[in-house]
């Protein structure tokens, strides 16, 4: 990594902490010359040329990319048609309508037969225990997928049917999703950390006719009896008058009984002592995966689908109420995830890519399965967690497989930061070339630690802003082209036209803060909310006609860099001034004693709203009035007196969803001593809530 170059007005700067707080006035980090030299996009100028072309001639730009894929029949009519403006009629987006293809064919058959990469490893699978490993080549994966597609066909699954998948991170999960894609059936993957209630709700919403699940698995030390949860969900479905007729169960923990070499996609027998997990069996509904696979044939002709046919449904929580079934389609999604993967991680044939996200989330769909496979990449598929068996697990995996591109979430980085540098530096990490983050704003403190400690100052960091709804990256640096600013997702990807709007919907020019929207469709945009197109229109297009509304606030600095300031619903209004919770949290975690912080608005008789902060301290620090004074001073200095918090509470842990998102809605209630919490079924550890209620701040500090 080159030395940080001075930009803007910030002056000399004295040390990392100060840089971290410098925000838009801060320094930028040039792409390392050794990365730029071989990069697909080697300079900012080249990025700008390509970006301009992608907006001015979207049909030609994406049309050229589409030529790299296999199409059964070419696009007969317009390459792109859309309406983003509710006042002019129904919202719709169509890319390549009338062209036919198959996503599974493109990510497997095309790679094996056209690209001749059949013997290349598609996945290194690393189980929960470090000794549990296996690998699967593209050819082996194709064989497994054909077998399982035939299994599904035999069970009556046809094009357009919905199939629910509730599985841990094992190779069979990838096989199951690709088999659905081969048949043109829609997979609806439900993260295996979700409750039976959530699974039931999702099965019902899209009336799935079949469920694929697993006996049980370990997450670190914790045993999850998944089949039991699946049974509960199916029982609930039955009670609600919707009997799911078939449940296919992968024997994962119990696979020792199966012997080895059963199939290349199956991991070796579990080495950890296995408790006797009791699997209840529903005759007539439950079927073992391995038994069905033994009978299935090798050949399976893919179902040719329209580019605009749905590929999958993935549920995402709405800011209120019922989860939304986000629908992505065959052609556009395939093009978009393949292209973002190639450019954002600057993919080269010899790379070993690792995205730590669970496939149950969009990040896993796009950057564990579809994006890497569409490029013929080798990836790591990891079942475990970063802290098991110890804090250095991620870095030991990086060394084991010589991972070159590594993609994770800021919450994981902050978690590991708490344990210091040694668990990281114990491992070489010499193979790493590019680091990525996704899911939430990364505070500059965490960015700098990731860059300095994990990346040893030589790996660019791609801070990728996107959403379940967008299918792939929207704002992101390109590793060989974009000078990075810690905490900024920098610039739009190809085909993405962002704008910043004020409350009245006017586009703001230059340096500005407001609503982040997108002005024109990119191929990976969701097409509808499953079964509720009206909800799609009102959620994303109603507030500002003519724009896709992200629901996020953002700031554009004097250099045109975009900084996500957090969800609009996390914006605070203190004495008539808009403040973003992310901004205050970032200032708090820059203090050496603070590992993580969450800030919520709290009613205040004079200011309207004031700030109530929850802080989790790093090991070895204690909470005291001296510390709260230091933190307030820090915020005053970083942002201004307006942002001085009224309350700072010690929070040994924060309430989080299972995907690691801090539940600010719950924190707001705790701050107000309001025990009417609503639905807290998604909180990973409910005991955290009681603990925080017991230690509320009672007076303004
Ligand atoms: O608020 C933004 C935040 O995560 C939201 C999307 O969440 P989800 O649909 O669960 O998808 C997460 C993985 C793509 C966004 O509206 N977000 C995501 N990435 C970033 C981010 N906020 C800031 N910076 C990011 N890089």
Main sheet? 8 strands, mixed
Please report the total strand number as a whole number: 31
Rg: 25 Å
Q: Give the rounded overall mean pLDDT.
A: 90
The CATH topology name of the largest domain reads Rossmann fold
**Which structural category fits the helices and strands?**
alpha/beta
For the largest sheet, list the strands in their spatial order: 12-11-8-6-7-14-15-24
Number of domains: 2
Tell me what the CATH architecture of the largest domain is: 3-Layer(aba) Sandwich
Name of the top-level CATH class of the largest domain: Alpha Beta
- What is the CATH H-level superfamily of the largest domain? ANL, N-terminal domain
Distance between the termini: 43 Å
How much β-strand is present in the residues? 15-25%
* Helical content band: 25-40%
Describe this structure in words.
Monomer. Interacts with TFEB. AMPK-mediated phosphorylated form at Ser-659 interacts with KPNA1; this interaction results in nuclear translocation of ACSS2. Interacts with the 'Thr-172' phosphorylated form of PRKAA2. Interacts with CREBBP. Residues 116-528 form the AMP-dependent synthetase/ligase domain. GO terms for molecular function: acetate-CoA ligase activity; ATP binding; propionate-CoA ligase activity. By secondary structure, the chain is of the alpha/beta class. The protein folds into two domains: 102-264 and 279-481 and 494-507 and 517-543, 3-Layer(aba) Sandwich (Rossmann fold); 566-695, 2-Layer Sandwich (GMP Synthetase, Chain A, domain 3). The chain contains 21 helices and 31 strands. The strands form eight sheets. Strands 12-11-8-6-7-14-15-24 form an eight-stranded mixed beta sheet, with helices on both faces. A seven-stranded mixed beta sheet has the order 5-4-17-16-18-19-20, sandwiched between helices. A five-stranded antiparallel beta sheet has the order 22-21-23-25-26. A hairpin with an 8-residue loop joins strand 1 (80-83) and strand 2. It is globular. The protein starts with 15 loop residues before the first helix and ends in a 7-residue tail after the last helix. Mean pLDDT is 90; it is low at 1-25 and 261-265. The structure holds adenosine-5'-monophosphate-propyl ester. Adenosine-5'-monophosphate-propyl ester is lined by residues 316, 362-363, 438-441, 463-468, 489, 550-552, 564, 567.
